[in-house]
Amino acid sequence: MRLTTIAALLLLADSAWGMSVDDAYASIPHRRTVFDRRAATMPADEADALQRLFAIVDRAIVARVTKSGYEPLLAELRAFDVPSRLRRVHTLVAEAVLAEHAYLTRNEPGAVQTASARLHEAYAELMRLFPDESPHNRDAFFDYLCALDFL
Q1: Contact 53, 90 (CB under 8 A)
Q2: Range of the domain at 109
Q3: 3-class SS at 77?
Q4: Residues 42, 53: contact at Cβ < 8 Å?
Q5: Global pTM exceeds 0.90
Q6: Cα distance between residue 78 and residue 72, in whole Å
Q7: At 98, phi and psi to the nearest 5?
Q8: Most buried among 7, 18, 49, 139, using CB within 10 Å?
Q9: Per-block average pLDDT, block size 10, for the chain (151 residues)?
Q10: Structural domain tally of the chain?
Q11: Which of 89, 21, 7 is nearest to 97 (CA)?
Q12: How far is CA 23 from the centre of its chain?
């Protein structure tokens, strides 16, 4: 892990007022199904990237609930280089997080709908890319993205 990523994670943890991921999910409330990297049927580089992307999504949920910590999160999303098959999913999730930030900080009209649409698209893309993934991991795809969705 690069030093800038570690620094961003530390800043994010500090700015999120100490709220845990579990506390954030409970406050929504939403079920949390953790992606099982070891059981994934996809190539290892894609499973590793999804594990990292979903960790970012978890932190985005904390940022949404605490209304803080978006800057290092957005920086990490911008710096995250994913395998080519996951680029669209990554872009959609990044656009959703950016839209949620715009809504929470500037009350930008349409931002919640934009974020929701991007998360629905990301979920559809994951299901298209990984139709043979285990039911547990397919549930995880849904839960991460649904928990991040305001709608």
Answers
A1: yes
A2: 3-148
A3: helix
A4: no
A5: no
A6: 10
A7: -65, -40
A8: 49
A9: 47 59 92 96 98 98 94 96 98 98 94 97 98 98 96 83
A10: 1
A11: 89
A12: 16
